[in-house]
Each structure stands twice: as C-alpha cells, then as structure tokens.
Amino acid sequence: MPAPYIWRNGEFVAWEDATVHVTTHALHYGSSVFEGVRAYATPDGPAVFRLQPHTRRLVNSCKIARIDLPFTEDELNAAVLETVRRNGHEACYIRPIVMRGAGPLGVEGRKNPTDAFIFTMEWGRYLGAEAIDSGVDVHVSSWRRIAPDTFASMAKIGGQYINSQFITMEAHDLGFNEGIALDYSGQVSEGAGENIFVIYDGVVYTPSLNSSILMGVTRDSVLKLLGQLGLEVRYEPIPRDMLYIADEIFFTGTAAEITPVRSVDKLPVGKGSRGPITKAIQDEFFAITSGAKDPYGWLTYVRQTEPGD
C-alpha cells in the first residue's frame, strides 16, 4: 500500500499527484541521481540509519552529474525525517531522487529544471526474507562493471543502473538470486546493487575504489564493525577464482543489508551456510539498527527531531 505523502520540491503532495511529464529529461537520458535509505523500528520509534552520509552522497552525485540541486544537506535531511513522520512509518525504505525535469529534448540537459522527490514505502528483505540466515545463490555475470573512463562509479546515477539491470536479469534468467560483476580488468567488482566482502583464512578482502565500485554507506559501516572486531581487512584486487575457495562471502547494501552468499556458480561457499564472521557482523549491525546500541551515533530518531530542526 502506498504511503500518503511524497515530498516534491519542498512541498508535500499526495502519492498519486507526484508525477512527471513525458518530456522529463531523466526519462529519456537517465539524468537522475538517487539514494536508498532505511528507517528501522526501535523502542524509541523509527530511526533513520546513517542519514547524513546518504545525503552527502546524493549531493556529491549531483555534483558529479552536474545537476543543479536547489536544496542544502540540512534541508534534505529534514525533508527525509518529515516524510517518514507524516507517513506514519515505524520502519520503511526511503528513496530520495533528484532529476533533470521537463524541458528541451537533447542529450545536453543543463537547461532543464531540477526536480527533487522523497518517497517512502514498506519494503522487506531485498534478496528474500530468508536470505539473511540461509544466504543466496549467485553467479559471475557475463556483464562487466563500468570502466573508469566511461561512467562515474562513485556517483549513484540512474542511467548507470542499466548495467545493474543486465546483471540481475541475467542472474534471474539462469536461476540465481543475484549476479557478481567483474571490473574492466577482470577482477571482482560488486553485485548488481551490493558491495562484496570475501573471507579467506580469517582475513577479509574487499575490492578497492579502482574496481569500479560504489562507495557504499553500508560497506563503510561494515568496515568500521570489522575493525571493532579486530579483523584484518585488505583492499586489493580479488580474482574470480578466489570466490570459489572463499570460506565466507557476504553482500552489503541498504536494501540487501548484510546478506550471506551461499554458493557461487553452483559451488558452495565454505560449508554452504552462513559463516561465523558474517554472523558476527550481522549481530553487530542489527543490534545497532534495532536501537539496542548505537556507539557510532548512526541512528537519527524521527520522533526526537522536530520539523524544521
């Protein structure tokens, strides 16, 4: 069921009225940037997980894409909180999106106006309700991630997600839950919409920024949690065959949260079940998102933040 209200360019409108014109530049050329954010249910009411880093990435994506953004980070943060509050959610998925709007056609879209929206919805586990415990089956996609001189992997740009769609559709057509893409040099990059961590002999490996990955906010959170647990993390190229001998693999992302990978190309990962390091990270992550503890100040409580703050 849709939420009652959507924030549009500084005002709230009914869900059904938050429309765009067919000449909207983003519909034709993919000129939008967006974020995925979650609010979690806690004993003190809904709390948004790592709101500020998400908003900052949205602003940075606009800068990279050269989309004028007529709102400050503080204004966007306040709008997110008020959207959750008005829609009465206890927990929800939050989608801010900024796009080049209706105006002249043509690839050069900087004369088009900017439209900004924030909508919320109830959305469960992205890779399935059981995936957090039992894991997912993935394959290495035939589609590569974007090369550094073709697109801007550090920006969350709508048009770039055609690449992700190809990866996911191929995975589903072949009977897998998700795909893992290699980068331009043939090393492991990330999933269609998730960052990846690979564990071998007690060491955690994750691709660095030069492997065409998005700088994931959940990835950053997990890196801090790994440090808290005293685990060694190495940022280096990961060859495809390392996926086949890994002891554990897990995905991270706002939608995917912390999802174990059960098999890669039909080969079991480790014992074919969630491993102890993955479980330890999940326990820490979900303790924070549930409000049981928050040592890093990652939660912004909706009901403790007045409109306009």
Describe the structure.
This protein has 309 residues and is α+β, with helices and mostly antiparallel strands. It has 2 domains: 5-123 and 297-301, D-amino Acid Aminotransferase, Chain A, domain 1; 131-274, D-amino Acid Aminotransferase, Chain A, domain 2. Helices cover 26% and strands 26% of the residues. It contains 8 helices and 17 strands. The chain has helices at 25-29, 51-65, 73-86, 131-134, 161-173, 217-228, 242-245, 276-289; strands at residues 5-8, 11-14, 32-34, 37-40, 47-49, 92-100, 114-121, 136-140, 178-182, 188-191, 195-200, 203-206, 233-235, 248-253, 257-264, 267-268, 299-301. The strands form 2 sheets. Strands 8, 9, 10, 11, 12, 13, 14, 15 and 16 form a 9-stranded mixed beta sheet that branches. The protein is globular. It starts with a strand and ends in an 8-residue tail after the last strand.
